[in-house]
Amino acid sequence: MSGRSVRLRSVPIQSLSELERARLQEVAFYQLQQDCDLSCQITIPKDGQKRKKSLRKKLDSLGKEKNKDREFIPQAFGMPLSQVIANDRAYKLKQDSQRDEQKDTSDFVASLLPFGNKRQNKELSSSNSSLSSTSETPNESTSPNTPEPAPRARRRGAMSVDSITDLDDNQSRLLEALQLSLPAEAQNKKEKARDKKLSLNPIYRQVPRLVDSCCQHLEKHGLQTVGIFRVGSSKKRVRQLREEFDRGVDVSLEEEHSVHDVAALLKEFLRDMPDPLLTRELYTAFINTLLLEPEEQLGTLQLLIYLLPPCNCDTLHRLLQFLSIVARHANDNISKDGQEVTGNKMTSLNLATIFGPNLLHKQKSSDKEFSVQSSARAEESTAIIAVVQKMIENYEALFMVPPDLQNEVLISLLETDPDVVDYLLRRKASQSSTSSVLPAAVQACPQYPASVFTP
């Protein structure tokens, strides 16, 4: 990159590498501490924290253990979000492995068919020659059960640089392709050791299969359904769907599935999460954004979202994207052919009222506790609804990373891992050259004129 400048532009947070997203958390945390007066302590939430069970949850768990029909380990409901995604990934890998085994077996059988036909017309010696010839054919195996080394394309990062330890001077100029990587799993080491294991590529989108399936189904079949999320569902059918997802069954939500059942299933999943999607650590910080000036609230919400673990951030993005689409169909309108289309009546306020308490809360309380502190609870509920409504209405902007923050991330990486900055900037330059979005100009940084640039 020597002698060149790079123009950074706002990009979706999902397009950043795993390493960049980890550093973005630190940059956002510093800015919140320095520039935002939220009147509360702010911490970066830990991924997959174990929580103490409340008495109500312990009783629920005890009741479930007594139910003979639930003699299995749940794969989705009531599990930490990171564990749900890990279960989904394990299921997908198992499916892919079975598919590959079936393909290898089919290829093996196909390779033997010509030999079987020849054997009917030739002598045994001639058949043996044919068998020998077949077994030496490239790309064919006579032993389908023999494991083969996993190709590079199946590993984290595919054919691109996957982590700092994979990067060397000879490779860095050749590796420009943008590939998806799976998230790093070892998180209990020191930060420097952790960073060495983080991928230099975007991580695989971490959204539970259940959430994505429900959102897709409702986007396809439920946008014109009046009172979606408010109308009652069949408890029996919802329980059946829930158990299928919990057993790891490959559930396919089709048109015959009631949109009200699917809507209830999505709400149950969010309600039963051990830690809410916006995390308990950031509860007060999210609420206190309402105390800021209106023009400061959105930027502060954006920084708080950057603090979320990637699985929470990606799932929140998918959910808010879906809720925004639902809200756009709230009012009656006229179709292209002149027909009146009834709206679903679910405005962003109505949706925030329904989903807010499940996305943002400190601790779920019993009905008795709720009545004792009804006044305080009502105020908190109003604040929660206002925060979630603002998120629904501005979800696209909230998950974009502006150039100045990207630059702070690169400078942070320059101080600890200067060898990766050149690679990351080359990729950004390649992406910018193919984009029609007008980027923000940046200047060369005197500390590292060959690679780092500041606004």
From TrEMBL:
CDD domains: RhoGAP_ARHGAP6. PROSITE patterns: RHOGAP. Residues 123-145 have a biased composition (Low complexity). GO terms for molecular function: GTPase activator activity. Residues 119-158 are annotated as: Disordered. One of its GO terms (biological process) is positive regulation of intracellular signal transduction. Residues 198-399 form the Rho-GAP domain. GO terms for cellular component: cytoskeleton. This is Rho GTPase-activating protein 36. PANTHER family: RHO GTPASE-ACTIVATING PROTEIN 6 (PTHR12635:SF6), RHO-GTPASE-ACTIVATING PROTEIN 6 FAMILY MEMBER (PTHR12635). It holds the Pfam family RhoGAP. SUPFAM superfamilies: GTPase activation domain, GAP.
